[in-house]
Amino acid sequence: MYCTPKIHKTGNPLRPIVVYTGSIGYRTSRALADILAPLVGKSDHYLNNSKYLAKEMISVMVEEDEMFISHDVVLLFTNTPIHLALQVIREWLEGDTELHTRTRLTVEDIIDLLKFIVTTAYFSFRGVIYQQMFGATMGSPVSPLLANLFMEWLEEQAIATTPVECKLSGMWMMFWN
To answer: What CA–CA distance (Å, rounded) separates 50 from 31?
Structure first.
């Protein structure tokens, strides 16, 4: 495990990252990441990167009767609920008509492998071996996909259940689509 400073945060707290390359689960995690990658970005509200968002935000004007709201997920990887993320991924895999072109594994095989990879994350720090108990491990190739797929689903649920008076305006709907 090593840490990188969060230079955008006050006091520059450290972000722990497990050195996953060369671990027993690395190749399986890498293969699962390749299988899951085409599922990311399929939601209506997906943004490719922050550079794209910044470019688009230059032209955004918030009207007097509108409100601009931004949400930040604290500790995204470690706060991703694994059991729910696996349910979401199972549903998306079951609806993926191109899955057979990427792998010969069944949806059940993929979920079993994912469950094993994300629930058996061990690392050593100062000579002591630890097991990660919550969320996805930073450093595993499959973790960003697991977190992103869960967040895309969560965002869709939040937008779908938003009260009418709080719905996105027409301009925002066009922006996000």
So the answer is: 27
Q: ∠ CA 43-45-49 to the nearest 5 degrees?
A: 105
pTM: 0.77
Q: Which CA distances in Å does 90 have to 7, 62, 111?
A: 36, 38, 7
User: Interior CA angle at 82 toward 157 and 117, to 5°?
Assistant: 140
Provide the number of structural domains found in the chain. 1
Phi first, then psi, for residue 112 (nearest 5°) are -60, -45
| Domain range enclosing 113 | 2-176
Q: Average pLDDT of the chain?
A: 83
Give first-to-last CA distance, the chain, whole Å: 39
Cα separation, 70 vs 41, in Å, equals 19
Nearest 5°: phi and psi at 17? Answer: -130, 130
Spatial separation of the C-alpha atoms in residues 13 and 89, rounded to whole Å: 32
How far is Cα 34 from Cα 145, in angstroms, rounded to an integer?
10
**Which tens digits make up the pLDDT trace of 63-120?**
887 777 766 676 777 778 999 999 999 999 999 999 999 999 999 999 999 999 988 8
